[in-house]
């Protein structure tokens, strides 16, 4: 007999006396195995049968699904040829909205799912505020990194709904926004939504939010109080903080934009900038292509301060800046790039190309701006030794600066 897996997933809010329709109550009365978070058990515990088995949903989730598999593969849970074993799962709000039903579908794509959703928490907060939410940009920071939130800020989303966790709190979110200059928003925070005794909704400035204490679970809505300035397209060179005031040590704006075009960053996912100096290429890439994961390397220790200053000046959170010799830097744990720009090489271009090739994703590319016949030759020879394919280059002369040759190599 083929093992059948069935999940009944029930959405609930924070109300300690939840209302469920008769069909859901019938499932609960006849259920044997239940699952959910600690908070969900507190909410529904008194509704469960006396002999109910409870599987707590905690990280790592692989352990949880191993317990599910034991249920589905063991005897005694009522499976027949026509009736599959089932697990009743309690989840927050709409289980398909950044929720546990998505996890089940991903880990057990052949499982049968019967869904009983509730309003998700951002819907509930919007309902309490009588605020239309068809135009809200939704971001989940629950167990997730800052990346999508940073992207929403850079893209100047006028209304952002955020699912929080105990690390990404309203206070830390507000602090990050202020740190990177996104101060033109006001914040609405909902705590214990659906709980008649504990529910609280507050409206505050970002500065007030950084000083506030918030009970979990909570979520929030950010609304722009004014439209932020449009993202610049080609940041003027003089607006950057420079290395020891040396204004010529920067990839000039026109060259910078042509470099990004050669990298085809619109279709890339992970970008490495090697030799970032002022951070101009990384910052421009992050502004123009906020979907990118950007990792930047600089041998000079001063680079860290420059990146801190300039990334905050231009509102580009989320750039991972690493100082030290690139050739000595462990890159195994970093996201593998599909686009790499070499802005500095210290005379070790062939070795760099070999190391980059080992990390580069299939179809990835490397761009290098040559300023001399020697560096052009080094790139061509290094690319050949690494088994890379050279592409036609572009020769650019800008004002009284030395001509630049934008060179490109790919894996295939």
The strand count comes to 17
H and E string: EHEHEHEHEHEHEHEEHEHEHEHEEHEHEE
Identify the CATH class of the largest domain.
Alpha Beta
* First-last Cα distance: 47 Å
What does this entry look like structurally?
About 30% of the residues lie in helices and about 25% in strands. The protein is of the alpha/beta class. The chain folds into three domains: about 5-120, Cobalt-precorrin-4 Transmethylase, domain 1; about 120-225, 2-Layer Sandwich (Methyltransferase, Cobalt-precorrin-4 Transmethylase, Domain 2); about 235-410, Rossmann fold. A seven-stranded mixed beta sheet has the order 13-12-11-14-15-17-16, with helices on both faces. Strands 3-2-4-1-5 form a five-stranded parallel beta sheet, with helices on both faces. It has a five-stranded mixed beta sheet with strand order 6-7-10-8-9, with helices on both faces. Strand 2, helix 2 and strand 3 form a beta-alpha-beta unit. Helix 12 (about 350-360) crosses helix 13 (about 375-385). The longest helix is centred in the first third of the chain and has 13 residues, at about 60-75. The mean pLDDT is about 95.
């Amino acid at each position: 007999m083929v093992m059948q897996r069935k999940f009944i997933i029930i959405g609930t809010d924070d109300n300690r006396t939840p209302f469920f329709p008769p069909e859901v109550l019938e499932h609960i009365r006849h259920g044997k195995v239940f699952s959910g978070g600690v908070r969900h058990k507190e909410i529904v515990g008194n509704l469960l049968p006396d002999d109910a088995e409870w599987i707590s949903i905690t990280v790592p989730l692989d352990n949880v699904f191993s317990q599910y598999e034991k249920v589905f593969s063991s005897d005694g849970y009522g499976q027949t040829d026509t009736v599959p074993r089932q697990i009743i799962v309690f989840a927050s709000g709409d289980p398909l909205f950044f929720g546990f039903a998505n996890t089940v579908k991903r880990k057990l794509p052949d499982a049968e799912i019967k869904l009983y959703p509730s309003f998700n928490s951002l819907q509930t907060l919007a309902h309490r505020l009588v605020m239309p939410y068809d135009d809200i940009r939704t971001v989940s920071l629950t167990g997730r990194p800052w990346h999508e939130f940073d992207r929403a800020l850079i893209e100047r989303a006028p209304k952002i709904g955020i699912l929080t966790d105990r690390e990404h709190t309203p206070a830390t979110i507000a602090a990050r926004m202020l740190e990177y200059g996104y101060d033109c928003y006001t914040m609405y925070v909902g705590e214990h939504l659906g709980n008649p005794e504990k529910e609280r909704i507050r409206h505050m400035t970002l500065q007030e939010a950084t000083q506030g204490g918030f009970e979990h679970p909570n979520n929030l809505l950010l609304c722009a109080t004014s439209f932020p300035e449009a993202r610049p397209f080609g940041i003027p060179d003089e607006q950057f903080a420079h290395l020891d005031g040396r204004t010529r040590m920067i990839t000039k704006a026109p060259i910078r934009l042509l470099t990004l075009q050669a990298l085809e960053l619109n279709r890339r996912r992970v970008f490495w900038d090697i030799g970032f100096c002022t951070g101009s290429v990384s910052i421009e890439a992050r502004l123009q292509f906020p979907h990118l994961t950007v990792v930047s390397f600089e041998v000079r220790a001063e680079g860290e301060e420059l990146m801190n200053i300039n990334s905050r000046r231009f509102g580009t959170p989320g750039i991972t800046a690493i100082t030290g010799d690139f050739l000595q830097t462990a890159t195994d744990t970093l996201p593998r790039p599909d686009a790499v720009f070499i802005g500095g090489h210290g005379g070790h271009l062939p070795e760099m190309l070999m190391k980059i090739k080992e990390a580069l994703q299939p179809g990835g590319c490397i761009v290098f701006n040559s300023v001399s016949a020697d560096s052009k030759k080094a790139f061509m020879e290094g690319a050949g030794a690494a088994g890379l394919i050279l592409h036609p280059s572009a020769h650019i002369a800008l004002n009284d600066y030395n001509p630049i040759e934008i060179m490109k190599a790919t894996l295939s």
